[in-house]
């Protein structure tokens, strides 16, 4: 019986992504973001429970990727698509470019399953981070974004850039601790402390800022390591 528990949690992640997608197509972006966050919580616990119960399986790994592409690939693409549809765009098919992000999310997840370099860190932007960025950006900044000329096309460029980040060879740190010492974890502690401040000040849009800060901090860390 216990072997089915992690897969059940993973399915809850997938269902959360389906609900998020539904609300995205209804232009209920806050609810869509909420269910992406709920999906992220399930995604965090399914692997943990599998390890605790010693019931990890190849099926669970594949199911996890399928669920993640729905919740962190298709759902944020649907948010961006629906939001772009609110603009008066001369080229009516432009919003469909948002779904390219779902394809690149699937590619990133497939690469992650095969890439043995990502045990302690990430190569490229993790799909949950990308999904939270877009959900928080649309929810927190929609009124302001609507006032910026050509913002729809700017968003398309940002979507394509996030697609690049998903499959890039850029090393990005993970919040995994072998021990709690400062020396080897100072970047992680710096990120956590600054993230708390950012979220306290900016609230929902702070999530998008934190993700952007995560990418910048990863790039700076790589640059410093190369210069050592």
Short description:
With 228 residues, the protein is mainly α. It contains 8 helices and 2 strands; from the N terminus they run H-H-H-H-E-H-H-E-H-H. The longest helix has 27 residues, at 58-84.
Distance between the termini: 51 Å
State the helicity in percent bands.
over 70%
Strand order of the largest sheet: 1-2
Tell me the β content: under 5%
| Overall 3D shape | globular
Structural class: mainly alpha
- Rg, nearest Å: 18 Å
Low-pLDDT segments, ≥5 res: none
Mean pLDDT: 89
Strand and helix order:
HHHHEHHEHH
Q: How many strand segments?
A: 2
Number of helices: 8
Main beta-sheet annotation: 2 strands, antiparallel
Attribute tags:
8 helices, two-stranded antiparallel sheet, 228 residues, 72% helix, mainly alpha
Mind explaining what this structure looks like?
The radius of gyration is 18 Å and the shape is globular. The protein starts with a helix and ends with a helix. 72% of the residues lie in helices and 3% in strands. By secondary structure, the protein is mainly alpha-helical. A two-stranded antiparallel sheet has the order 1-2. α1 runs antiparallel to α2 and α2 packs antiparallel against α3. 35% of the residues are buried.
